[in-house]
Design goal:
Elements lengths: L7 H19 L2 H18 L4 H28 L15 E9 L2 E6 L2 E7 L11 E8 L2 E4 L1
Parallel strand pairs: 3-5
Antiparallel strand pairs: 1-2, 1-4, 2-3, 4-5
Helix pairs in contact: 1-2, 2-3
């Protein structure tokens, strides 16, 4: 039986799959970018490009993806989420005093709900109808100033 010659484009696809498996196991996006480079080299091979051109296509596509995608991903990873939820979203909001608020307690209307509140500065008191700002949420109590 004669040996079977496998076309170069098939080898590149095998290489792409071989890079894809550790990508899934390790979650290293660089391996995915190398796999895309191997697929691009496979396309070049299928179109009849020589071995040197296939390697150049692989290298150029892989390096370009790593150079462009990694900084974008790092920037997105470093950004704080723009949408805050829960009690974090209440910090900095304005509220209206519905029952005198001082260092020992009181009540405010915050985001349409009645909250227990206390003054950040225990010497200050806020009267009914006065507008206050929420500085912090401590359990179920809003700390205001």
């Amino acid at each position: 039986m004669a040996p079977v010659d496998i076309d170069a484009w098939v080898w590149w696809l095998i290489g792409a799959a071989a890079l894809g498996i550790p990508l899934v196991l390790t979650a290293m996006p660089e391996l995915g970018m190398l796999a895309v480079g191997a697929v691009a080299a496979s396309v070049a091979a299928a179109l009849g490009a020589g071995t040197v051109l296939q390697v150049v296509v692989f290298a150029l596509v892989s390096v370009a993806l790593i150079a462009v995608v990694r900084p974008i991903a790092a920037r997105h990873r470093a950004q704080r989420p723009e949408l805050t939820t829960g009690v974090e979203a209440l910090k900095g909001k304005s509220a209206v005093v519905v029952e005198r608020v001082d260092g020992s307690g009181g009540r405010i209307k915050l985001a349409g709900e009645i909250w227990s509140a206390r003054s950040l500065d225990s010497d200050l008191a806020y009267e009914t109808g006065q507008q206050v700002d929420v500085v912090e949420i401590d359990g179920a109590t809003a700390i205001v100033m």
